[in-house]
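STRUCTURE:
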């Protein structure tokens, strides 16, 4: 039976693909206040602005490609059972070949009802030929279409599934996250005490856990080194 690897990824995973991070210098928050484009209050105040912001993010994503880090995470499936838990809303893990991806913060290429966000009946998957949401466009229940994004202050519907995966991990890998955003940052605490943990990030990350093996590199170079360690 294959060992189970759980991979937790953050913005640094996709940075090499040209996807802007929100918090780093030059990131998206410098141009758009978070409360304007990623909060329920911002959505209520100006849904047209919010949809245009995510239309622009989708256009950026369509032209982006998975990087070597994404591809190597997918390659782990040759020898392991792999579940990716990502804080990212892009689809680069899936496009690289990962077959089990849990999105904690929503999915950029999915839109939903603004009245009933988790009702799958009103979900719509967008693609490169049809990625825009126009002003006033409505879902099947008559409410405005909104991005399927977990806005700040909203609950994280997939967190319980992510916790369950972490409890089952034989190996835990963290890539490109500062572990500052909760509840995702708390997932490391659900990894069993005997399970090895590898953390890939070019910047120092504090976990408070002694057994963490740090690989202070970007996603692609860090994954190359880790693949060697895992054999």
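SEQUENCE:
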């Amino acid at each position: 039976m294959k060992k189970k690897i759980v991979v937790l990824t953050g913005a640094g995973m996709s940075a090499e693909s040209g996807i802007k991070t929100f918090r780093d210098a030059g990131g998206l928050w410098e141009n758009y206040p978070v409360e304007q484009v990623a909060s329920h209050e911002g959505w209520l105040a100006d849904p047209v602005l919010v949809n245009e912001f995510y239309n622009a993010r989708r256009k950026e994503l369509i032209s982006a490609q998975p990087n070597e880090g994404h591809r190597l995470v997918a390659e782990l499936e040759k020898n392991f059972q792999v579940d990716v838990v990502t804080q990212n809303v892009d689809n680069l893990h899936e496009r690289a070949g990962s077959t089990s991806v849990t999105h904690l913060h929503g999915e950029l290429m999915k839109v939903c009802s603004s009245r009933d966000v988790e009702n799958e009946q009103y979900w719509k998957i967008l693609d490169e030929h049809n990625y825009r949401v126009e002003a006033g466009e409505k879902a099947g229940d008559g409410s405005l279409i909104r991005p399927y994004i977990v806005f700040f202050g909203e609950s994280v519907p997939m967190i319980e599934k992510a916790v369950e995966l972490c409890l089952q991990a034989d190996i835990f890998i963290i890539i490109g996250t500062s572990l500052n955003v909760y509840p995702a940052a708390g997932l490391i605490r659900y990894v069993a005490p005997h399970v090895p943990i590898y953390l890939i990030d070019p910047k120092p990350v504090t976990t408070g856990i002694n057994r963490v093996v740090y690989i202070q590199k970007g996603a692609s170079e860090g994954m190359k080194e880790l693949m060697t360690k895992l054999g």
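REMARK: The mean pLDDT is 92.
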